[in-house]
Amino acid sequence: xxxQTSSPVYRQIAADIRAAITRGDxxxxxxxxxxxxxLAQRYNVSRATVRQGLTALVNEGLIYVPARxxxxxxxxxxxxxxxxxxxxxxxxxxxxxxxxxxxxxxxKADQAIAVEIVAPPPDVAEQLRLAxxxxxxxxxxxxxxxxxxxxxxxxxxxxxxxxxxxxxxPSDIALGTSEILLEQGFRMDxxxxxxxxxxxxxxxxxRLKISAGIPVMIYRFTGFTADDQPIRHTVNVxxxxxxxxxxxxxxxxxxxxxxxxxxx
Amino acid sequence: xxxQTSSPVYRQIAADIRAAITRGDxxxxxxxxxxxxxLAQRYNVSRATVRQGLTALVNEGLIYVPARxxxxxxxxxxxxxxxxxxxxxxxxxxxxxxxxxxxxxxxKADQAIAVEIVAPPPDVAEQLRLAxxxxxxxxxxxxxxxxxxxxxxxxxxxxxxxxxxxxxxPSDIALGTSEILLEQGFRMDxxxxxxxxxxxxxxxxxRLKISAGIPVMIYRFTGFTADDQPIRHTVNVxxxxxxxxxxxxxxxxxxxxxxxxxxx
DNA sequence: CAGTGGTCTAGACCACTCG
DNA sequence: GAGTGGTCTAGACCACTGT
Lengths: 264, 264
Fold this sequence. Notes:
Two copies of one chain form a homodimer. Chain A has seven helices and ten strands. The first copy, chain A, is of the alpha+beta class and 264 residues long. The first copy, chain A, folds into two domains: 9-74, Winged helix-like DNA-binding domain superfamily/Winged helix DNA-binding domain (Arc Repressor Mutant, subunit A); 80-245, Chorismate lyase-like (Chorismate lyase), CATH 3.40.1410.10. In chain A, helix 1 (9-23) crosses helix 3 and helix 2 (36-43) packs across helix 3 (47-59). The longest helix of chain A is centred in the N-terminal third of the chain and has 15 residues, at 9-23. Chain A is elongated and about 70 Å long. The first copy, chain A, starts with 8 loop residues before the first helix and ends in a 14-residue tail after the last strand. The first copy, chain A, binds a DNA duplex (19 and 19 nucleotides) through residues 8-10, 35-37, 45-49, 51-52, 54, 65, 67-72.
């Protein structure tokens, strides 16, 4: 309600509602107690202007419209911890850490797997250091929790390595895909993880049912043999409102020179 | 131009322009060769409808308006690799990897530092396992490159640990803040890194000059002593269009059981 | 069926940039 | 000064949800 120095009306409306949410007046999951029409009357502006303000908040990921005609609702946050290192450690270092799809026994986990032979996208080809025209085996997984799509997990393998292996089988690989690679004579020795964030593409919005104002994290994983040959590249698309990625580091790991710094 | 099955006009407009960009018709950095008015005539709709479509693309981070009357422009991507592990390794494992503010000698790097004594936000208090009411020393850094704000780096230290140290000095600490902690008798032994993504708050938009459609990554770093006492917590806010975070892992690091898995 | 948000029109005036 | 995007109005009709 408090108007500041000559900012557009729609921003003021957004700021007021944002403040109310931050203050706790409208708790997560609750409905915003005013309709567009009410707000238009209250601020004495047109509905279009109110809408512009509300749309801004939607694009911040702060509120959303769950279903047509049910009003604007404050988004609640419930993130799952993703722990790339969890798989190759005997037990968790930090007690508070979760492991994916393990401590959510009450929820119905599921995944859809499809296998294709494809020409890799340029970035994948570069990571795998493939010659132009070289093909890859792509294992696409869409994972769900309670029938809600949760993340996308696309693993690319050089065709030469994967062609006659169990990687071509579009069913869950209980052993882990690294075991299959090992059977083929490729032992994974080290890995590179990268994470970036952007807004989702329309395809991702479709596939993951991402609503407006939610970014995605792109978490990439490249696996190498001891002589630094890349043998796999995995691209994870993680809706930002559902995931946290966590890593651990220890001073006495090899290659450390004793310093453990916060820089950057 | 190709209309699909009964989707709103503004989405069609957005889809057409998105396709043209993806196809390479409008390369990164170039201007979209149509004004709002032209598009309105071309699609035979009102300017408001065209605007709705363009706004959608802006909120995807695909296009933006550099200055008031200069038209819509395709965003170009130029990301910097952030490598938390770089500081405690003698030399980079992977040749392709960068190190922050080191290989950009042609650019003017800068940072503004401020030190405050504050009550920590709840999440920081929890990470540092502080009792209610316990204070922290907060070192706020805003880093710039070519006078463009680049990221925010806020480090919290328990007041009891930092109070009489050089951490209170709001100037660059050449040695590294860990060295200061060591002088105080706290040797950092291991660390926890977490990364998540969301849309920026208005304060972050202001401080980092983030434009619409750009998410931020929140990269947190918590440092512990050998007996698992948390002695520092750093919160980095990284605009999604500028940063990639990278980690490396090796099979023969301690705690590894020989498996190195891709499972998200 | 009333209420709510989703889409759209046909205008208007303003602020800023560029030639 | 012409062109461009930024803000805003006062309507309209539609699609869907809930009671």
